[in-house]
Amino acid sequence: QVQLVESGGDSVQAGGSLRLSCATSGNTSPLACMAWFRQAPGKEREGVAGIGRYLTKVYTDSVKGRFTISRDNVKNTLYLQMTSLKPEDTAMYYCAATWDSGCQTSTHEAFYDYWGRGTQVTVSS
For 52-81, how does the pLDDT look when each residue is reduced to its tens digit (9 = 90+)? Predict the structure, then answer.
């Protein structure tokens, strides 16, 4: 049984920074593909960033140059460092993971089997 728990969400002013964390536990290993997603009220869920088995990364265009995805295999934790935050970044942020042997670096929902319950990020102008 795999558990993902996000933390680090907060309310900040535009231009500020936050670091989100996703702690994993239960039947996990470093050989995962993982990603961050977000969903704002009234909007569809979108992929933000993904990281693969060999640390390849992919980002949605709107966060390139501002967000950095990374992971610590010792702590079994995924991170999303967010800088230069904008009001349009306001959303519930979710982490997702899969341990499928054929997983790819991806920000598509269909690739992921396990999801956290989310952490709220609110950016005011």
Answer: 988 899 999 999 999 999 998 888 899 999
